[in-house]
Sequence to fold (291 residues):
Amino acid sequence: MSIGAIGALSGAAVGLGLACGIAAFRAGPAPRRSKLARRLSPAKLKGDSRKLVGCIGAGVAVGLITGWPVAALAGAVATWWLPALLGPDRSTARELARTEAVATFTEMLRDTLSAASGVEQSVRSACAAAPEAIAVEARGLARRIEDQQDLAAALTSFADELRDPTADIVVVCLVHAIRNSARDLAGLLGSLAATARTHAAQRKRAQAARVQVRTSVRIVTGVTAGMLAALFVLDRSFLSPYGSANGQFVLAAGLAFFSAGYAWLWRMAKPRARKRLLTRMDQVQEPSSWW
Fold:
C-alpha cells in the first residue's frame, strides 16, 4: 500500500476519533445538566472510551486489508453504530422493567396507606421492598429520609433519578398529600399503578413488532457483508476499480445510501423516548382544589 494511502487512512482514523469524541462528550442545553452529568459519569466515560478504541481499531484494520480510506471510515462508523441496531434492545427492556417496577412501588404505597399509615411511613416501607429495577433509587430515597431531609425534597430527587413520567405523577400526588390534606390518596395511587401496567403491556406488544424489523436488518447486513467478503477473497479483481479516486467516490456514495437506509430502519426499530411530564419537580406547586 502506498504512502499516500497510509496517510489518508491515518487522517481518516484521526478525524473519526475526533468526531466520535465530540459526539460522546457534547454538552446539551443548560437545563439538561443531569443528562450531561450522566454522560460524564465514570462508567459512561469508560464504556465510551473502550468503544472508541474498538472503532479506531476496526477502521485501521479494514483500511490495512482493503487499502481504501472510505472503507476504513465506514468500518469504524459501523463498529460504533451497528451493534446497537443489530443487538438486543436492552434500553427498551430496561424502560419496561422500570415502568413495571414503578407500578409495583405504587401498589406498595397504596397498600400501606390503606392500612392507615402516614405518607412518610408508607414511603419507607415501599423503599425497603422496592423492585430490583428501581432498588438503587429507592435506597437513595430511604437514605435521604433517614438523614432527616425534607420528604417533599427527597421525593423530588427520587423522581429526577428515575426520569419516568409515571413516577413524576406519583411523586406529585405524594408531594400534594404532604403539603395538603389529601383525600383517597390510596385509591388514586391504585389507579396510577393500573395505568402504568396497561402502558407497559402496550409497549411490550409494540416491541414484539419491532423485533421483526431488527431481524430483517440482521439478515440484510449479514447477506451484504458476506457477499462483499466473498468477492474480496475469491475475486478481488472485481473490486479493483474501487481502488481509484473515482472508485472511492462511488463507494462513498453507495455507502451513504446504505447509511440512509440503516438510519431509516433504526427509526423504525427504536421506540420514541418518553418525555417526562415534569422536568422541574422542585417547582411543582399544586393548587388545593385538586382534591
In short: Confidence is low (pLDDT under 50) at residues 24-34, 281-291. The longest helix spans residues 185-234. The radius of gyration is 26 Å. The chain has eleven helices and no strands.
